[in-house]
Amino acid sequence: MKTFSRLLRRYLLAAVGIVLLMFVLGTSVLGWVLWREGQRPKREYSYSNIADSMVQTADGLAFGPQHTPEEWMDGYSWAMVLDADGRVIWSYALPRTLDRRYTSSDVARFSRWYLDDYPVFCWAEDYGLFVAGTEPGSMWKYTAYASPGMLTDIAGFLLPCLLGMLAAGLAVCFLLSWRGARELLALARRDNARTQWIAGVSHDVRTPLALILGWAEQLEQDAALPAPARQKAGGIRTQSERLRTLIDDLNLTSKLQYGAQPLRRELLTVGPLLRQLVAQFCDSPLADQCDLSLTQTLDAEQAQISADPALLGRLVENLLSNSVRHNPQPVTVCLCAEVRSRQLCLTFTDDGVGYPPAVLAALKEPESSEDAPHILGLHVVEQIAAAHGGTAVFEQNHPHGARAVIRLPLGELTRSA
């Protein structure tokens, strides 16, 4: 169920994220359009203000004395005044094609829209009809009309239509969510069954495996047996220990993948923790087959991390064991701890044969193929690092050998890096 909840949460977050993204994009486009409009030249004075400012002089009509004609006409191309008979009695920069007499029908046509493709603005004054125009194509100028019945219909049907569209949208979203939820629930049940099956098999195998390990160890230490028999018993014990490790890795990777492995975090000091984990490995039989060294900088020695000590111990054990088991003995293994960019950096290196190219290729693939090499132990390392918010990188060591770099976030640093 944890997997189902996690996938459902991701689905909802993705839906909300898409809505927010569309809202931000729409708002950005609208803001850009308004900004572009704000950058366009603005008319300093409205045509009504210009018409009101006109004065009668001995030479006829003229602009008001408050500003120059150029200032009054800023944003307009031309202007004229028509008398009651439609004759031009005053003009400013009037195009020659417009200098004519206009009938009442002509005035009715251009008073709200265009005059010979010139957008025009009209204002009635006592001295006549003031007309100001701009260049063709400089703006769109239209007027919309609606009857009271149309407005009533819109008011009566718009709200139900909007509610219907909203209900339809919600129904579609519910249908898609319901189908997605069914698929996620089926996936969650399958994952839960897989996890339980692996846990059950692991539990059932541990008991006979423990008996095999115990008997093999007794036979290996029985001095009455010939040396070849004791050597074979030692081989049985070694392979049984490897089988136990594989079972533990399989069970752990399944729990980590499906969220069934709880993280019991503690604030741990790195120096004592690494010394303890290395000491535990040195007590194992594998330690006899390698030369292990631990190096820590002062910053790493005093650094603190929030981690699950059991899982972190499994990470260290898997990497150290991997170097010993997959290399001819003896092999030199080095663990170096340092602090870089507020992260604990653990570097595991050995002087063995290095990672096979197929292993490195399989680690980079999101899905394992049927012919992929065995990388379960390294995959567990990746999962443990990711569960702690860190990363794991596997590469070849130079001049030879394998190199694994684990980066984990620091919880608290008592000494600045």
From TrEMBL:
The keyword Chaperone does not apply. InterPro entries: HATPase_C_sf (IPR036890), HATPase_dom (IPR003594), His_kinase_dom (IPR005467), HisK_dim/P_dom (IPR003661), HisK_dim/P_sf (IPR036097). It holds the Pfam family HisKA. It catalyses: ATP + protein L-histidine = ADP + protein N-phospho-L-histidine. Keywords: Kinase, Membrane, Phosphoprotein, Transferase, Transmembrane, Transmembrane helix, Two-component regulatory system. The keyword Glycosyltransferase does not apply. It comes from the Bacteria. The chain crosses the membrane at residues 12-35, 154-176. Residues 200-412 form the Histidine kinase domain. Its EC number is 2.7.13.3. One of its GO terms (molecular function) is phosphorelay sensor kinase activity. PANTHER family: HYBRID SIGNAL TRANSDUCTION HISTIDINE KINASE C, TWO-COMPONENT HISTIDINE KINASE. This is histidine kinase.
